[in-house]
Design a protein that fits this description.
Nucleoside Triphosphate Pyrophosphohydrolase; alpha+beta; 10 strands; 184 residues
């Protein structure tokens, strides 16, 4: 109906459809949402790295997944690691940012890999629909394994060498409902 008045589809979510009409020929309109966000965790404890195997990848990899709408990085990382392994963690730093295209839904994917500290060690997979196996693997075995993708090996090496960007508490915004996170 609005298309006959030169409105065009821009984006939608579960409750809204947004259509736009340029009233000025050179008007700048931001692109619609064009990427997904994901987090992954490098968790090393007692010279072992925490790994998962899911139903899609079928090789051992670092735990992680998508950041949910309105969820911050640290909470998403804690949630994903717990769902996939039952291990509680604390984010220590961001060590890598990857960009993958095309990714799921023909979108770009920004993948934030964090160094995290294990607050527990006992594995108890919560998301058994997605995760086939989780385990702690000795670092020497990990780096020697031909079944571990080189990308994941490089992430672990980077996490071991690099201090990374650390979460910093700042009072830039006084709104107590704020979900802002700052990494320096």
């Amino acid at each position: 109906m609005l298309t006959k008045y030169d409105f065009v589809f821009h984006h939608c979510d579960e409750k809204n459809i947004t259509m736009l009409k340029k009233l000025i020929a050179d008007a700048s309109i931001p692109t619609a949402i064009n990427h997904t966000l994901g987090v992954g965790a490098v968790i090393i404890d007692n010279n072992k790295v925490l790994l998962i195997k899911d139903k899609i990848w079928k090789q051992f990899k670092l735990p992680g997944g998508y950041i949910d709408d309105k969820e911050n990085i640290s909470h998403a990382l804690q949630r994903e690691v717990f769902e996939e392994t039952g291990i509680k963690i604390k984010l220590q730093s961001i060590v890598s940012l990857g960009h993958f295209y095309p990714s799921q839904f023909e979108q770009s994917n920004l993948y934030i890999v964090c160094n995290a500290k294990a607050l527990s060690q006992k594995i108890n997979i919560v998301d058994t629909d997605e995760i086939l196996e989780a385990k702690w693997m000795d670092l020497d075995e990990y780096f020697d394994s031909e079944e571990i993708h080189d990308y994941n090996k490089n992430l672990v090496k980077t996490a071991m060498k690099n201090r990374g960007l650390r979460l910093k508490e700042l009072d830039y915004f006084s709104n107590t409902d704020s979900k802002h996170e700052y990494y320096f």
